[in-house]
What does this fold into?
Amino acid sequence: MQNLSSITLTLPLMGKLLSFLQRTVEEASLAWSLDGKGALRLTLGAEEMYAFLLTQGKTQEFPKIEVTISDEGAWVELRFLLPRGILPLEAFNLVPGERAMPGHAQGLFLAARMVSFLRVEQKEQNLEISLCENRSYPLGKTISEEVPSSGPWRMCTPEAPEAQQLADRTAARPPEERPSFVLRQGMAADLLRSPFWGAQVALDSQNRVGAGLFWERRGKMAFLHGPWNFSSSPTLGEELLNVALGELYAQHFEGVILLDPPRETPRHRFEILGDLPRKGGMLREVLYCSLREDTGGPLYLHASLEGPLREMTERLSLPREVRSSEPPLHRIPEASALGVRMDLPRKEAYLFCLAPGRDGRENLLSHLKILRSQEMEEIFFLLDLGQFEDLPMGKFLMEAGFLPRLLFPWAGKGDLLLWTAPEA
Amino acid sequence: MLFYPPLEKLVPPHIRQFEPYIPSKPDGELCKLYGCSQIFRMNNNENPLGPPEGARRALENFDPASASIYPSGDAWYLRHALGKHFSLPPECFIVGNGANEVISFVISAFCEKGDNIITADRTFAVYEWVASFSGFQAKVLPLLEETFDDQAMLRGIDERTKVLFLCNPNNPTGTYWNQSKLISFLETLGGRQILVVDESYGEFVEREDFPDALELLPRYPNLVVFRTFSKMYGLAGLRIGYLAGDPGVVDMIRRASVVYSVNAPAQLAAEAALKDTEHIRATREICATAREILGSAASRLNLPCSLGEGNFGILKLPCSDTWLYRNLMKRGYMIRSLTGFRMPGHIRISFHMPEVMQGFVMALEEILSTLSS
It folds into this structure.
């Protein structure tokens, strides 16, 4: 279903080219069906980001950066690919003081405030910063009747009409069993045009969707929505899940996470990863299914984390060699740098470590403050326990009041430990 | 200054999208990680009896001093021995570094940009992998009743289809095409594409209607047969397998093959192994016992079980296969979880000595009993 297009510009980082970038972003956004407001927001985001880059340290006069504007299905994305050196890691340190970069607290976050989504990623020798603006969609309809057919069922990736039908059927489910995008006419089909999204359906001979599910790629993990069974066949949801798991394996995912399992979820096919607090304080059980045989690996931990992590790995029967230590402060670099993924419609932010530093606690607290000021309700930290260099961050996270909650096996270089931020 | 290569530009997209296959760690490392004292490998369909007696002697007699000399580049003596054994000219054979290598010889020889191969979804995945990372499309068709779907394969052929792969008997389902089905398929195919019949597990099959594809070679020159010394002959550690086909077809494949890839001890051991029929009988006996132990345990534990042809069986689980894998590993039993074969919720168990099979069954029972609690 992918039919995406993009424009890539290689630009010398010069103030004079700002208006050229603005015009290109705005016209491309409109061409790819963002409405006027959306196109304006992305253009303002581009302006903030470009202006921010102009203020940062440079290794050369007018260094070249790559800017890509792309149609990603349900959103338009503006991607800045920055060779190392253009944006020093200090730009990701929000601790006030001498080290603070000029305009540091405004740059990235001002840009993020304009759009739906901000993502910062390190890619080989480059840093990639993406700003995304979602398309707007009207409310769709709901289909609540059962599919009476008993099959035979054809399991497949849905085309746009079947994707919409799946969304319409799912829209009839209670909010805790379905994602909100299914309520929007046309959004599911657009999401599936992006490589970050996928779906699987069981169709009868009349192309009625008897069962279906969506998945969202987040790194090496697939976050599953479903499986929903709309048919009178009680095992159809599980049969579809089997096909989907095989497909996800073939697409090189490590595992599957299920945050809001529908009532018909074959729970025996999943493990319980742990609990995560919902908005409002209730706990929700997080289900997990590994797609691969675990060949074992090291866990680099700050010594203070050894107890909770041993409990997690033993409960999940994960073969891990715990390598814990407590590095003396003088061996840790002075300044830390944190990356961020912000999803404004979901009011959700994920922080992660770009570089550990002695001011880790202060940097975390500064990030918390600014994220809360941007009305982020759920703030998480993802710590890669396969990354030896990040080991000191465990201590700073504890000191900043974060709580280790869930271990996602092999979701990063090693396991990813998900932390929740302290209550405001 | 460090010039790091621009990998995003240097590496083709079809390679970048691949994740490297991570094989299991050595036993010693796994024992440390899983906290067990010993690992019984029941995951790779190896022969628990080890190599035949003749092959062992050949390895013992290998003169270490001759390790400095290149092996026969085209396995000259082994090809002649194979020719004699199967009453075919030695030119019909190419020996490779395991059957995996001969798969890539065939795909390289016949496919060019835009071509495709046909295989199945729940079969040996290397046909699909080699095609995909060589930049060719692999048409992966669903099995029909756990068996290669002949009609779907024929329908799947287009003008760019060059090679069809049939794993017979199939790993992991243990199903097979009988003689008449294979012949009928070859007749319909009419020699327009290459049909590879992978008989890696052929020596385990005792059914009368199981075809010997080598015997069909004179009638069907588009037929290429794979065999291996890794399974029945217990030489998996030496990595040696071969293909057989019409001399003209094999001559083309040879152009895409790597010579000197099979080491000298492997060639000597394989040649000796061919002569040992007693080894085949003894192995089949172990498989029969193991099949009985697994079958009765499955029925006691109320687990759907498939005990087809080959030295392995399949169990359908009431839980995640990868979760069970980890828990069996803690008890020292390494099986194959089948999510990777597009069969999530199933495991494949390679047949082992009776006492190991019994131990495995006990461990399985113990783990499954924790599910209800």
Observations:
- The mean pLDDT of chain A is 89.
- The interface with chain B takes residues 123-125, 241-243, 245-247, 249-250, 252, 268-271, 289-296, 316-321 of chain A (CB under 8 Å).
- Residues 36-55 of chain A form the longest helix (20 residues).
